[in-house]
């Protein structure tokens, strides 16, 4: 939004047309407002005593597909809800939402595939898109990568591992893996 405001300011100073930049700014504000509302709603929902991660992800995917005109396939294997604590499920839901928001904002994808897998020893969440991709090393050099830093913090705090694979023109795959303890995690 700051970039758009700067473009509008420059155009006004140079007496150039600003309507397109204003419309783009308006759309950015609308999307940001929608994202903030979704996150607030999601945070309220995850304060329940017993979180059903699978149901929450299914509901989010259903809304996401409708709002973003993006096809999403969801494959769930294992007894995910019984193996994870509410604290971990809350973080995984936030991570999941952030990754899907990133697909909408940056990927220009037509398809996303999501796999949730639990085999008693490990939980994995794999999110793959067919979007435009990027060079992952650019995330480390960007000064404005608050979302990625927050994502890494959540993953590290859980003791999970993050694997991000992307290449321009080939989409992106993000894998979050979490080793499960014998008596359930946390």
Main sheet specs: 5 strands, mixed
Question: What distance separates the N and C termini?
Answer: 40 Å
Give the uncertain stretches in residue-range form: none
User: What's the mean pLDDT score?
Assistant: 85
SS strand fraction: 15-25%
Number of strands: 5
Major β-sheet strand ordering: 1-2-3-5-4
Helical proportion, percent range: 40-55%
> What count of helical segments does DSSP give?
7
Write down the overall geometry. elongated
User: Which structural class fits the helix and strand makeup?
Assistant: alpha+beta
Q: Please compute the radius of gyration using only Cα atoms.
A: 19 Å
User: Helix and strand succession?
Assistant: HHHEHHEEHHEE
Specify the oligomeric state: single chain
Features of this protein?
53% helix; five-stranded mixed β-sheet; 186 residues
Overview of this protein structure:
This protein has 186 residues and is an alpha+beta fold. Helix content is 53%, strand content 20%. It contains seven helices and five strands; from the N terminus they run αααβααββααββ. Strands 1-2-3-5-4 form a five-stranded mixed β-sheet, with helices on one face. A hairpin with a 3-residue loop joins β2 (111-118) and β3 (122-129). α2 packs antiparallel against α5 and α5 (86-107) packs antiparallel against α7 (146-158). The longest helix has 27 residues, at 19-45. The protein starts with a helix and ends in a 7-residue tail after the last strand. The model has no long low-confidence stretch (mean pLDDT 85).
